[in-house]
């Protein structure tokens, strides 16, 4: 049997378009120091460190080697993960496995990206298959736009409904001191009138490129109870992969087969039958406004084709029945190697009651997801109750 | 931290070239495209899916794929966009002229879809479900560029 595991501490940097004031090591140190302070621990109390990053963005191989001073890896067991949009949740799930296995008691998961130092669209282009896909796709945006037209066709969702998700993200971000894009006055009209990148995706529908780092500390049961007044227990983790080519699942956004598979597996493990009622808050990896609505449907928050109506009804607003991304989400902050781990950290903050102005009152069960390369998904469920 | 802090940065320019093998199944597809202007897919003996791009194994059934079937050259748009942001073409390193339309196209007889260019860049004239036909280059070299684009058919 796996041991019980909880998140006991988190630390984030101030995320921004350009953190020119620090290099990568210093950026990581900022998050790691805050996580250690949060748990009142020293680096020597950490048994293993897991690092998540997408090296092609910075063009810097082996961050686990050259950033040791930043992430406290000296002479510690460690592994680096590089799984696209899911980097952060892969790292979190691995940290869970490390502790649940009984081999390590306290493990730190770190994610970082400093996108201002590299060329994001060039790196993302290499996600596509060189022989079959790269010759026509236009980075993440073009790829995403093709999925969005299919989703609009399937669900009847409108550009205006998608824009509402973009507005919600940037307004929620104003309550999050770490968030990158904080836009208190943004309106649906602003999103609709922003520059058309690739139909139907406009500039304000998309996530930004950010510099940022995050660290999350996982501990086994007795240490978790000793070190954290209110640990966030890991109730379930799940991962699922699609087939490889974009055209293998043409309704990739409308159907999101990997998200459906992973979330249903996690719900079952956590004993959840009605996610909209039984989850109190969700931090999901919505790379763009249209994706958020599609994710509502595929996470089972509503029926197929109802994602637009859910945002219209305010169900996922901070004050709604099931707040989605009180942090401002990926549309507000996207240092890619950190992004999915930020979802986990934010879900944990909600359970711990430490989410400040973005706190969902009485949150007891929280969902976090990671979503990578349009093809694979991680799902993590946290709860205040010990499983 | 302040974005206004005076900072020093170091420039680094990396100009790299890669060469990728198309594989055995890709060889058969691309020689068929080059020599006969023909799209070939492979059929799974278990689920019956016809795969483009062709590949050795059905990822869903994990069965070997050996039955080759001609698909296209007409098909249906399942997703599309018109790119308006400036974009560097990764095949050449040059800026790609914008706007341009591209789509996921399900070739007739195939179960999966293929990315390719459209000969239309007006958002009002493209829709999901629209019929298209491949327009081939006269001089073909054995790559997806042997198809110039897909032409939007009436109706």
Distance between the termini of chain A: 13 Å
The shape of chain B, in one word, is: globular
Largest interface: A-B, 48 and 49 residues
Q: What's the level 1 CATH class of the domain at 5-120 and 209-227 in chain A?
A: Alpha Beta
Per CATH, the superfamily of the domain at 5-120 and 209-227 in chain A is Thiolase/Chalcone synthase
Spatial sequence of strands, sheet with the most strands of chain B = 8-7-4-9-10
> What's the N-to-C terminus distance of chain B?
58 Å
Biggest sheet of chain B, open or closed, and with what strands and sense?
Answer: 5 strands, antiparallel
Largest sheet geometry of chain A: 9 strands, mixed
Reading the helices and strands of chain A in chain order gives EHEHHHEHEHHHHEEEHEHHHEHHHHEE
The assembly state of the depicted protein chains is heterodimer
**Total number of beta strands of chain A:** 11
Counting DSSP H or I runs of 4 or more residues, the number of helices of chain A is: 17
- Classify the beta-strand content of chain A into a percent band: 15-25%
Task: Please outline what is shown here.
The complex is a heterodimer of chains A (387) and B (155). Chain A has helices at residues 24-39, 55-58, 63-66, 68-71, 87-100, 120-125, 139-155, 159-172, 188-193, 221-227, 252-255, 257-270, 275-278, 289-298, 307-312, 329-332, 336-352; strands at 5-12, 48-52, 78-81, 106-114, 196-198, 201-202, 211-220, 232-241, 281-283, 365-372, 376-383.
Can you offer a commentary on this structure?
The complex is a heterodimer of chains A (about 375) and B (about 160). With about 375 residues, chain A is α/β, with parallel strands linked by helices. Chain A has 17 helices and 11 strands. The radius of gyration of chain A is 19 Å and the shape is globular. The two termini of chain A are about 15 Å apart. Chain B is mainly beta and about 160 residues long. Chain B has one helix at about 25-35, and strands at about 40-45, 50, 65-70, 75-85, 85-90, 95, 100-105, 115, 130-135, 145-150. In chain B, the strands form 3 sheets. In chain B, strands 8-7-4-9-10 form a 5-stranded antiparallel sheet, with no helix packed on it. A 3-stranded antiparallel sheet of chain B has the order 2-1-3, covered by helices on one side. The mean pLDDT of chain B is about 90. Classes of the chains: A alpha/beta (about 375), B mainly beta (about 160). The interface between A and B is large, with 48 and 49 residues.
